[in-house]
Design a protein that fits this description.
Layout: H1 17-20, H2 45-48, H3 50-63, H4 65-71, H5 79-109, H6 113-158, H7 169-179, H8 192-212, H9 216-253
Helix pairs in contact: 3-4, 4-8, 5-6, 5-7, 6-7, 6-9, 7-8, 8-9
Amino acid sequence: MSEPGAGQPPQQPLQPAGDLYGGPPPPPPMPPGGAAVPPLPWEDRERRGFFPALIETVKLFVTSPSEAFARAKERGDYLSPILFSVLIGWVATVIGQLWGLLFQGAWLSMLPPEMRDQFGPMMATGGASFILTLILAPVLLLVWFFIWSGIVHLCLMMLGGHKQSGSGFEGTFRAVSYSYVSSLAQIIPFVGGLIAFVWNLVLQVIGLVRMHRTSQGKAVGAVLLPILLCCLCVVAAFALFFGAIMAAIGGNMN
C-alpha cells in the first residue's frame, strides 16, 4: 500500500503576495548569523519610490557618507549613479543660476536710472543664458563626470590604489557621481561654492576607499594629484605670459 502523496510532485512554496499581484518585490533575505546590509535607498528606488529614495539618499550622504558608500553597489548598475548625479547637479545648477540672477538684479537696482537703462539688456541676456544653461546642464554634467572619473581612476592606478579593487572604473565613477551631492551646498550664498568644492573632495576620498578597498592616502592622492597638476599648469602659463610681456617691454626700451 503506497503512502499518501507518493508519486505526486512536491508542493511549491507559496509566493509572496507582491509577486502574485504585481506589488513591490520583497526585501532581500537576511543572511544566517547576521543582519543584511540594506541597499542604498536610491538603488532600491523601485521598492521605496523615486522621490522618497532620492531624499533618503541625500540625507544619508549628508549625515553619514561612510554608511552611504558602504550600502552602495560596487558595480553592475551605471544607471543609478548617472541619474542621481545628473539630477542633483541640475538642481544645484538651478540654485546657482537663481542666485546669480538675484544678485544681478540687486546690483542693477542700486544703479542710477540712466545707467540702469543702459544695463537693462543685460538682464534679458541673463534670462536667456539661464534657460540655455538648464537645457544643456544634464549633458555637460554627464560628460564631466566621465572625464573626471577617468582622470581620477588613472591617478589611482598610477598610485597602485586599484590592486584590491573588484569594481574597476565603475567604482571610481560611482564615487565621483555620488559625491556630487555636495553641489547642493550652493544653496548657501557667497560661500556655497567653496563649501561644495571641499565637501566634494572629502566625499570622493571616502567613496574611493570604499569602492576600491584602498588606503586613505592613495585615495587622497588620486583626488588631489590632478588638481595639483592643473594648478602647476596655470602657474606655468602665467609665468610664460608675464615673461613674454617683460621681454617685449625690454625689447622696446632697447
